[in-house]
Amino acid sequence: MEGSGLIVSSSPHQHTTVSTPIIMSDVILALMPASLAGVWFFGLPALFMMAVCVGSAVITEAALEKLCGKPLTVRDYSAAVTGLLLALIVPPDLPLWAGAIGSIFSIAIAKFTFGGLGQNIFNPALIGRAFLLASWPVFMTRWRWPIYEAAWIPRFDALTTATPLVLMKYMKIKAPYINLFLGQVAGCIGETSALAILVGAAYLVYRGHISLRIPLSFVGTVAVLTALFGQDPVFHILSGGLLLGAFFMATDYVTSPVTPRGQIIFGVGCGILVTLIRLYGGYPEGVCYAILIMNAATALVERYTIPRKFGEVKKGA
Amino acid sequence: MALRTFKGGVHPRYNKDATFRKPITSMPSPGKVVIPLHQHTGAPCEPLVKVGDDVRVGQKIGDSKAALTAPVHASVSGKVKAIAKHPQSSGVDGLSIVIESDGQGTPDESIKMRTSVDELGEKELIGIIREAGIVGLGGAAFPTYFKLTPPAGKTFDTLLLNGAECEPYLSADHRLMVERPFDVVTGAGLLMKAIGVERAVIGIENNKPDAISALREAAKGDPGIEIAPLGVKYPQGAEKQLIFAILGREVPSGGLPVDVGVVVNNVGTAVAVKEAVIDGMPLVRRVVTVTGSCIKEPKNLMVPIGALVNDLIEACGGIQIPPKKVIIGGPMMGIAQYTTDIPVTKGTSGVLLLSEKEVVVEDVLPCIRCGKCVDACPMNLMPLWLSGYQEAGRFDDCEKLGALDCIECGCCSFVCPSRRRLVQGIRLAKAEIRAKQSARRG
Fold first, then answer.
1. A 104-123 residues with CB below 8 A of B?
2. pLDDT in the model for residue A151
């Protein structure tokens, strides 16, 4: 049997079937409830936005890799995930060209210049959103009525309104829980329906792709702090981008710590920052910036939370 | 009640269905055996026979004066044909004694049953175990007598027997426990006597209920021996993880089980001890699981040490699909081979012939920092960092991060969704660190 083409390699010889492309496509699958809710509540423009953002993300990645002579990686679906996430965190009435530019920025600047998949410091979709907010603040804060109109929302004119967090912060009007939970409020395309987000998140947890360490410490911190500051924690959990951010953005593998303790610190840090921005900051919502700031701290947090090795004896003990 | 287990680990597909219900059968006596002089941890043996000598089963044919070694014995009766280098599963061509069998299986005259073992003391028992060439049969092949002798100032309080058999595909230990529970228990008793302890625990993964009940039955009259069902998770049978699961003790980093008063032996080793002490027969045979989709009739075979893998395959009806990978041991820690012209050694627990379908070679993708390797590492290390530092040639950082604590179980590479060669990189780092350390010592 010598020379019969036997493969000789170092063990292990068996692997899990879960691969990076499978994880990424599972994330896309997990985002489907929130995406469908977005189309349900905001109509076809939401669908177009998703198509444009995903398309420009994938094309940008492929084009840059081609240009730089790098192996084509669009088949790992990570660019599609970034595009879809960006579409879910912009207002439904954002012009499609702006969505495309945001998506290109996400991939080209936030991901590719850092070295591509696995190398970026900041969550690309959130960088895309931050870029759009800085560049076209008017487009990024113009909110459309959900199609299934809710009687409690003040109408500013025929089309526009404000998000529950804005209404709360500046007009002390609180959206009913049920509308927040189902998603019948103004907001970003994929952020309004807590129900849809949680269904998708449950799938990711069930598949073992995310642990609850970051989302629970994130949401839990917001709940505790808002309660301490005399606010309604349930309202704060259900409003804005908190749930989408906690389950789908803060858990981004690349930009969050890999250490268990680090993940909890990361989540708590995000929660503190969100609460501070929401209650004392200039913006009504702070999930995007909170996560981006904690992204910057990821390497540091990780370095100080290396797990105790099995059998490691504490010094001096 | 939650089953006892350890932190981390993975759940590979166990693939034991093909063999775990099949009783152990003896393979037909092979025409020749190739007995390597170095099939254990420690110094190689010097041959004690010459080409042309007649040898008999159980006759010592190689030994060494080194402190850490294990003698080798003839596993068939016949004539020494050659003493030459021969490919071996470890990857090196080791000096081996080739014996042409006369098919008689005549035992050496030195082989005598002991009718009474009660008067044997600790030293005598350990001496018998050494002379019988017994090494750890789980795969590491560490000389057993050496493990049973505690370093100065240290003592044992518990004997652990490892019946976890957490490697996928393998069922040799499982069958041994089901079919020969009394030999396992007798061996355990002898080992307890050899190290002077009153307590033994046999740890078995809970997916082998027949082995658990067989051993419970066999150990009924012996209050010192406890059977501990364990969680089904790889690497449950890793020494440090087994000790933690059963006793809740952590072997200190860089230390040995004796540092927590424990010695761990494989259940197969216990059977070998029983055979050596009571039957007077040195370690000349062992159970090998021959399986994988390429094998026509997967089996648990009783095999003379030195039998060629080719003959084992023949004894299992031959090959039905051309193999793409041949592994000695299990798929998680076993060694891939370039040929099947290699002998079974004392550490050979399985022969796996995997087909193209089971050997998928996937592209390595960038690390996405999912942290699955960190969660899976039973030693609580950071495989992605260790492998990253190794790739960058930063071996000092690997050492600081505990590369030497790595038990090379392969959980990190198993779970990696990007198929990164994590444990493989850590192995390289360990070799570099060890080389540097010995250079420092001069």
1. 116-119
2. 56
Give one DSSP letter per residue of B364-391, joined into a string.
--------HHHHH-TT---HHHHHHHHH
Predicted TM-score (pTM) of this structure: 0.92
Q: Do B337 and A19 touch (CB under 8 A)?
A: no
Structural domain range at position B401: 372-441
Order of all β-strands in the sheet with B46-47: B46-47, B60-63, B72-73
Using CA atoms, how far apart are residues B373 and B425, in angstroms rounded to an integer?
13
Q: Are A132 and A98 spatial neighbours (Cβ–Cβ below 8 Å)? A: yes
Measured between beta carbons, the chain A residues lying within 8 angstroms of B355 are none
Structure tokens, A140: 């990024």
The answer to whether residue B148 is domain-embedded is yes
Read off the pLDDT of residues B389-400 as tens digits, 9 standing for 90 and up. Answer: 999 999 999 999
pLDDT at res. A259: 96
Interface contacts A/B by beta carbons within 8 Å: 165
- Nearest chain A residue to B168 by CA distance is A14
Among all residues of chain A, which has the CA nearest to that of B248? A311
Tens digits of residue pLDDT in A241-293? 999 999 999 999 999 999 999 999 999 999 999 999 999 988 888 999 999 99
Q: Which residues of B touch A257 (CB under 8 A)?
A: 371
Where among B251, B279, B307 does a domain terminate?
A: B279
- Contact check, Cβ <8 Å, B336/A310: no
CB-CB under 8 Å, A309 with B405: yes
Mutation for testing the B interface, residue in A1, A8, A13, A114 having most B CBs under 10 Å: A13
ipTM of the complex: 0.90
What phi and psi, each to the nearest 5 degrees, are found at residue B280? 75, 10
Query: Is B108 inside any structural domain?
Result: no
Q: In the predicted model, what is the mean pLDDT of residues B147-171?
A: 94
Band the pLDDT of B297: cuts 50, 70, 90.
Answer: very high
**Closest CB from B240, B322, B413 relative to A310:** B240
CA angle A249, A254, A256 (to 5 degrees): 60
B377 and B270 in a common domain: no
Residue A28 has pLDDT above 80, yes or no: yes
Query: Is B134 contained in some domain?
Result: yes
Mark which of B279, B298, B324 sits at the end of a domain: B279
What chain B residue is nearest to A13 in terms of C-alpha separation? B331
The domain total for chain B is 2
- The chain-wide mean pLDDT, for chain B, equals 94
d(CA A79, CA A72): 11
* Residue B107 domain-assigned (yes or no): no
Partners of B356 on chain A (C-beta within 8 Å) are none
Domain harbouring B243, CATH code: 3.40.50.11540
Sign of the CA dihedral with A103 first, then A108, A112, and A113 last = negative
Work out the pLDDT band at A75, boundaries 50, 70, 90: confident
> Is the CB of A309 inside 8 Å of chain B's CB atoms?
yes
B333 contacts A310? CB cut-off 8 A: no
